[in-house]
Each structure stands twice: as structure tokens, then as C-alpha cells.
Design brief:
By secondary structure, the chain is of the alpha+beta class.
């Protein structure tokens, strides 16, 4: 039987999230849609940020240092873009403090800019509760699944349910991202703790 519809299906696998960073000049403004931040140690390897995968980590074996990165999804009301924001540890700590005060990051308005106009300049992050009176935020995505898709990580969990673009849909079990946890030291810890970072 054909399944016609008036709009495309809502995707939940995270394939359509662009990774963005704080621009070298100007400000990045948006509203966080994820409930919390997740992150893990990463390497800059072959022109990409990749997760550290000890004990068999090629960048570690080549002597490359790792750096922790955290991720949240943000929505920009005027463009309707829903994107994945990558942050280093210092601005992510600002979000951790906001989470402690408010119990969630969802609905947190952020303004991110760099102290100096360099692509790797220090990021200054300003947070405040957003006025959501005329804004409908997208559903919080599964950040673990987005990162697993971007980094091509092994299958995280497991049941096949329906199809997507001709392939079985893999539904990853959603982990509790509300409870704080220690920052994992390696990607194996990241997966074992359900993606918790703070």
C-alpha cells in the first residue's frame, strides 16, 4: 500500500544537523533546544574534530593531544535553523552553571562571541531565559544519536522500527540527560555513561 502524505516525515536520527561554532567576528544568537549539554574528549585530526576512542585511538597513537568539546542544539527564531553548537570547556561551564540554576538548558537564550577576532579566540557566552511567548521550539533531539551519526560511531542500541530512506530505522534508547555526571575521559566512557558530560 502506498503511503502518501502532504509533508515529509519528521526525521529523528540527526542527519540534518549542521555543526556550528562561535564565529570569529559578530555574534551567534539562539535558543537552546536540548535539555542538557553532552560532550567528550576530542582530537583535531585530518581537518575534523573526532572523538577520542581509547584504547585504540589513532590520534592518541600519533601523539596528538585531546581537548574536551560539549554540544547543545540551538534554534534561531528568525531563520528557523536548528543546529548543533560545538563549545570548548570554558563556555560549556557557563551552561553547566545555568543548568544548575534552572534545571534545564532548554529555553536558554545564548549570545556567543569571541573576545578577539580570531577563529580560535576565547569565547564569551552570555545566557538568560528566553521569552518564548511567540516562539515554538523544536522537539529536543537525541544529542547522542546526532553525534553518533556525525562521527559514524558503532550502533549504540537497538530495535528496528519502520524504514528511513530505504534502510531500517534504528531507534536508540534515550538516556536520561537530566542527571549530572562527571566529564568522561574517553569516548568509551561517553558511551557507557549515556552521553552525560556534566
Amino acid at each position: 500500500m502506498l503511503a502518501f502524505s502532504n509533508r515529509p516525515p519528521r526525521e529523528s536520527t540527526g542527519h540534518n544537523f549542521d555543526v556550528i561554532r562561535t564565529p570569529a567576528s559578530g555574534k551567534l544568537r539562539g535558543i537552546i533546544t536540548s535539555e542538557n549539554l553532552i560532550g567528550c574528549p576530542t582530537h583535531y585530526f585530518q581537518l575534523h574534530t573526532v572523538p577520542c576512542q581509547q584504547p585504540e585511538c589513532q590520534p592518541c597513537n600519533l601523539g596528538l593531544p585531546w581537548r574536551w568539546h560539549g554540544y547543545v542544539t540551538i534554534f534561531t527564531a528568525n531563520t528557523h535553523l536548528h543546529q548543533l553548537l560545538e563549545l570548548t570547556a570554558p563556555p560549556a561551564e557557563v551552561l553547566a552553571t545555568y543548568y544548575e540554576q534552572h534545571g534545564t538548558l532548554r529555553g536558554c537564550e545564548i549570545i556567543a562571541g569571541r573576545v578577539s577576532p580570531r577563529p580560535n579566540g576565547r569565547v564569551r557566552l552570555i545566557t538568560k531565559p528566553a521569552n518564548l511567548e511567540n516562539i515554538s521550539l523544536p522537539t529536543p533531539p537525541d544529542l547522542r544519536l546526532i553525534l553518533a551519526t556525525i562521527w559514524n560511531l558503532p550502533e549504540l542500541a537497538a530495535q528496528v522500527n519502520g524504514t528511513q530512506k530505504g534502510h531500517p530505522r534504528i531507534n536508540v534508547k534515550t538516556q536520561d540527560l537530566h542527571a549530572p555526571a562527571a566529564i568522561p575521559q574517553r569516548i568509551g566512557d561517553f558511551l557507557e555513561t549515556g552521553g552525560h558530560s556534566l
